[in-house]
Amino acid sequence: MRIVKLTSDTKKDILTSLLKRSPAQYPEYEKTVAEILQNVRENGDKAVFEYTEKFDKHKYDSSTIRVTEEEIENAYNNYDKELIRIMEQSAENVRVYHEKQMMNSWIDTRADGCILGQKVSAIEKAGVYVPGGKAAYPSSTIMCVIPAVVAGVERIVMMTPADKDGKVADCTLVAAKICGVKEIYKVGGAQAIAALAYGTETIPKVDKIVGPGNIFVALAKKAVFGHVSIDSVAGPSEILVIADETANPRYVAADLLSQAEHDQLASAILITTSEDIANKVSAEVDKFTAELSREEIIKSSLENYGYILVADNIEDAIDAANEIASEHLEILTKNPYETMTKIRNAGAIFLGEYSSEPLGDYFAGPNHVLPTNGTAKFFSPLGVDAFIKRTSIISYSRNALEAVHKDIEKFAESEGLTAHANSIRVRFE
């Protein structure tokens, strides 16, 4: 891996480079996505079936596009029982963690007859996109569905493309069964997002769409925002490691590569205060890369978006980490908890040498659907709050309103909204 000195110029160059991976930087795909969305919006099932045949090479109709209960049961019954046990434990860990995020409705009453409150409700229908086709990620099924279940969403609709044989991957169906999802459609890409956003004769319109996907999925989610809610416009995966001289270079190298293997656009960055650690990590990266199955992807990722930055001190390292606002941030320092208190921007923080990033991807419980491309500065991980909405409750007695009605009228009139003022005034004429 390239080793560079951390300066204001190198930090600026890296931030510019990382932003080039954002879905917003691919306008050449937007026209295609817009055409797909419009076609599905106008032609419903017909358009969905045509795109599925064109892109996935499978011919479906309204009777075959949905995964049957028999397909789900067959996948579950024939799947590796040990892997089922592991998935079930993963789902339980995710459930327990997300149950702690639940909000409660509340009512506050005052002696003057004023009642204020908040009603918390789950959204009615949620759409979950799960990548499929060439690769399958049951962990994404668990991470997207469990928070919705915990929130109390009544109807969860899953969209995932079929493989070359026209089947949804067994592991995805097993994960769906574990999570309690029964409504699954064999549709991928922008057409899947369009179907969820607008609804078709077969596929229901939902209130919110969540889940990772390729550039077409990301741009489609961005385009339908407003018709439905979305979790975020996710970009390629990222990891940033802050390490000092106490870090194990072999661990650091292995963790960097755990994200570099995702795809050629993935980012893996080490910021260290030790030149010795920088050199040792670079050497370990080379050793591991030669042994790993996705060697070419890793090499491409590291060549374009892999960096080892040598900082003068830990404060400079922390400042750079906050600017980069990485999806995953590992802290491998002498006192990781103290370092963590100074981090403002990160999707998920992993503390200490036994908290490797894949722990969060698969098993610990916190969600692995995280903000990318610097959006950790203002976005949060997917959670229960993504599937609930808050409704304000207001009730004033006559006495409570009478005490403040002139103030409200004056405020409204100051904005030129005389009908607002009149709505209050007529009650005391």
Provide tags for this entry.
alpha/beta; 6-stranded parallel sheet; 5-stranded parallel sheet; 429 residues
Question: What does this protein structure show overall?
Answer:
- The chain has about 425 residues and is α/β, with parallel strands linked by helices.
- About 45% of the residues lie in helices and about 15% in strands.
- The chain has 18 helices and 14 strands.
- The strands form three sheets. Strands 1-11-10-9-12-13 form a six-stranded parallel β-sheet, sandwiched between helices.
- Helix 6 links the parallel strand 4 and strand 5.
- Helix 2 packs across helix 3, helix 2 crosses helix 8 and helix 10 crosses helix 11.
- The chain is globular.
- The mean pLDDT is about 95.
The overall pLDDT average reads 95
- In whole angstroms, the N-to-C terminal distance is 78 Å
Work out the strand percent. Answer: 15-25%
- Strand runs, count: 14
Structural class given helices, strands, pairing?
Answer: alpha/beta
Spatial arrangement of strands, main beta sheet: 1-11-10-9-12-13
Low-pLDDT segments, ≥5 res: none
Helix content: 40-55%
What's the layout of helices and strands?
Layout lengths: L2 E3 L2 H12 L7 H17 L1 H12 L12 H10 L2 H19 L6 E4 L5 E8 L2 E5 L8 H14 L3 E5 L10 H10 L3 E3 L3 H10 L9 E3 L4 H10 L4 E2 L7 E6 L5 H12 L6 E6 L2 H17 L3 H11 E5 L3 H11 L3 E5 L3 H5 L7 E4 L5 H6 L25 E8 L2 H5 L2 H10 L3 H8 L4
Parallel strand pairs: 1-11, 4-5, 4-7, 5-6, 7-8, 9-10, 9-12, 10-11, 12-13
Antiparallel strand pairs: 2-3, 3-14
Give a brief rundown of this model:
This protein is of the alpha/beta class. It is built from 18 helices and 14 strands. The chain has a 6-stranded parallel β-sheet with strand order 1-11-10-9-12-13, sandwiched between helices.
